[in-house]
Amino acid sequence: MSTPATYKIHDWIEDVDSDLFLYASGDNTPQKAAVKFTNMLNIYHAAYNQSPADAFIAAERTSPFKFSFRHSHEQDADTAYRYTIDFSLHTQSFFLTAETVQRRWWRKKPLIRPFFRGSVEEFIQRYSSSPSLVTGLYKIQDEKTQGDVCFYSDHGNTPREAAFKLALMNGLHQATHSAYSEAFSQARQGAEIEGRPSEISSASDYLYTLEPFTDEEGWEGFTLKAYADGNNHRLFFEGCLEDFIKIFGKN
């Protein structure tokens, strides 16, 4: 199914704000666009030096020199959708306007109908496919209390889905300078604080832990460990949070 679309996304070059218009052929229905935006957020929250437009291009795995740049939404005569993302650097928030483009031979101009206005996260939740029925426990050390805060979620916790949740947490952590556990809670991930982590972890399909470390040179940071197979707790990833998001956040 071919439903071309243009995406207007915030960019900055040498600290100068601008907007890029990107043309995408193929399937750009809301469901497919939700996947693109999920990957864009994952990359943006994982890479400190990328603009939203850079993250969108990187998430598409397309060289910027091969991407189809445009001057406006109106440049092409075959688009079926228009997606406009406004970005606030201060709040690190993305606001999306999504529109359909209806073309009729007897009309001189296409009919533009908005069908969504809201945050990119809300768009993703509305148009993404149903989450998996995979359970997960998130064990995050609180930087203030030095204790662990555990969150249990009964759906949507495959590594790819967890990458999206952790990317939102990471973005809030960077924007608000709050503790990771606070940011995870604020992101409304559909997870509840769990007071019996030892019992729940053995019954969960996945376990994700975020804990502090200090390297040989005294640099402090956080390590993410990801385990599968419930009782067996098979470690399949250990490294920095940003690497997990980059690796598992893409399709």
Describe the SSE topology.
Layout: E1 5-13, E2 16-24, H1 30-46, H2 52-59, E3 68-70, E4 81-88, E5 93-102, E6 111-119, H3 120-127, E7 136-141, E8 148-153, H4 159-176, H5 180-186, E9 192-193, H6 197-203, E10 206-214, E11 220-228, E12 234-239, H7 241-249
Parallel strand pairs: 1-4, 7-10
Antiparallel strand pairs: 1-2, 2-3, 4-5, 5-6, 7-8, 8-9, 10-11, 11-12
Q: What this model shows, in words?
A:
With 251 residues, the chain is an alpha+beta fold. The chain is built from seven helices and twelve strands. The strands form two sheets. It has a six-stranded mixed beta sheet with strand order 3-2-1-4-5-6. α1 (30-46) packs across α3 (120-127). The protein is elongated, with a radius of gyration of 20 Å. The model has no long low-confidence stretch (mean pLDDT 83).
